[in-house]
Amino acid sequence: xxxxxxxxxxxxxxxxxxxxxxxxxxxxxxxxxxxxxxxxxxxxxxxxxxxxxxxxxxxxxxxxxxxxxxxxxxx
Length: 75
What we know:
With 75 residues, this protein is α+β, with helices and mostly antiparallel strands. It has a single domain (3-72), classed as Ferrous iron transport protein A (FeoA) (SH3 type barrels). Helices cover 17% and strands 44% of the residues. It is built from two helices and six strands; from the N terminus they run ββαβββαβ. It has helices at 23-31, 62-65, and strands spanning 3-4, 13-19, 39-45, 48-53, 56-61, 68-72. It has a six-stranded antiparallel β-sheet with strand order 1-6-2-3-4-5. The protein starts with a strand and ends with a strand.
């Protein structure tokens, strides 16, 4: 099931499915490794979302995170 990043839980592993944000934001996220099919772990989901992709942690604002669609990774 594909859901916005904002409704994920701490510790959950997700796969990025779609980036529905402005082209500048999409470009910057791609530069930082947040691309479609990337696997990530949700480190924090409070005011901002902290997402760990490989060895990199990204702090993402809640409005931007609402435009990032993810699906849970089934172990």
